[in-house]
Known about the structure:
Rossmann fold; 29% helix; 18% strand; six-stranded parallel beta sheet; three-stranded antiparallel beta sheet; alpha/beta; 242 residues
Amino acid sequence: MTARVLRFPSDDALVGEAASMLLNHLVQRQEHQAQVHLCLTGGRIANRVYAAFAELAAERDFDASTLHLWWGDERFVGTTDPERNALQSLALLARSLQLKSAQIHPMPASDGNADPDESAFAYAHELGDTIFDLCLLGMGPDGHVASIFPHHPSFDPTTLSVIGVTDAPKPPAERISLTLPTINRSRTVWLWVNGTEKADAVARALGGDETVPAGLVSGVESTIWFLDEGAADLLPRYRCEL
């Protein structure tokens, strides 16, 4: 299925539209489903979207009672470490979303867990056969998504749903990540990417370069790339909307 590419004049425009589309997408899912499963990503642009989303959700009195939150990857650090993706995103979403603990599914922290592999096994057990209605992803300048890095064992083919990552090329070295098969069973996948330093990886991913992890992710129903001008710089205009 061909990915849809949305090109925005600035990262501010990307954030605003992504937040609005996220709210509308979740509301539409709620109209037809008893539960909605959302997989979150970390990173600066994602956190900006979550902050904007929280404001919009408050204005529309969004009902979060059917929403389940999961994470695509996590730094293998302590529960209260401010670098944890879950801690950052929940701090922003909790501004307007009333969530019960049973609806929140963070990846295990290093407290009380021997290593990332043990934690990955535990998260895989919790995840089971859950299918994400929407999986959100960022992308690094090297084309990595979640904690799946090019030219690294995390990118090796696997039948596992969640893996422990060691010797990651960006700190911290130890992480937990969903795998490509898990991401690709999602109904919808969105990638939020900004910055000219990512333009080459974007062009390679959308051009079919299978050495770029981001180029191998896709949703069962749809895949959308949200790009600012910098990230879309090497793409032909006909590939992009807006």
